[in-house]
Design brief:
Hypothetical protein af1432, mainly alpha, 10 helices, single chain
Amino acid sequence: MTEIAHRWPLAGQDGLRDQLLEAYADAGRGYHGLRHLAEVLERLDELALAGATFDREPVLVAAWFHDAVHAGAADDEELSAQWAERALPDTVDVAEVARLVRMTAAHRPAAEDANGGALSDADLAILAAPSERYQEYVATVRSEYAHVPDEDFAAGRAAVLADLLAKTTLFHTAAARERWEEAARANVAAELARLRPPSASGGAGRPGAAR
C-alpha cells in the first residue's frame, strides 16, 4: 500500500487515505484492488502529460473514491459517492468528487465534461492493455464473481461489453482516443466473440462490470 500512498492528493487527510487503501486492499477483491487504483492514477498522469485538461484535485480524489465500495452490486458507485460526501473536508469540491464517482457507473460523461471524460478514460484504459494484461484483467474480474454460475456470468459480462461497444467512442479525451481506442475495441470485441452468451441478459448484480 505504501507504493501508492504518496499519490494521495489531500494534505492533512492521511487517515482518510489509509481507510481507502485498506478498502482497496480487501482480500475479497480481484481486479478492483490496489493495482487498479494505481493504474487509474497513472493513466490520469499520462493523459495530463498528453495535453488533456481537467481539474486535477477533484478528479484525483474521485479516482481514489470511485471503487471505495465494491461488492459487485448496482449501488457500489452510489455508496462510494456517499462515503466521499461524508468524509471529505469542505476545502475540497465535494459535490464534484461525488458527481464524478457516480459518473463511473455508466462511463458516459457529457461531451463538455472534461473532468468526467478524463476519469472515465483512465478507468477504462485497461481495455486497451496488451493481451497478457487484458487476460489477467478478465480473470480477476471473474474471480470477484466466483459465486455466479458461468452461464450467468457470461451473459452479464457480454451485456456490459456490448454496451461499451455501442458507445460512439469508448474514450472521451482526444489523447485517450488516439492512444487506446483501437486496441480497446479490438480487445472488447474479441472477448465478446469468445463469450457467445445464450442471451444478452442475466447474471447477479452487474457481473463483469468493466470499471
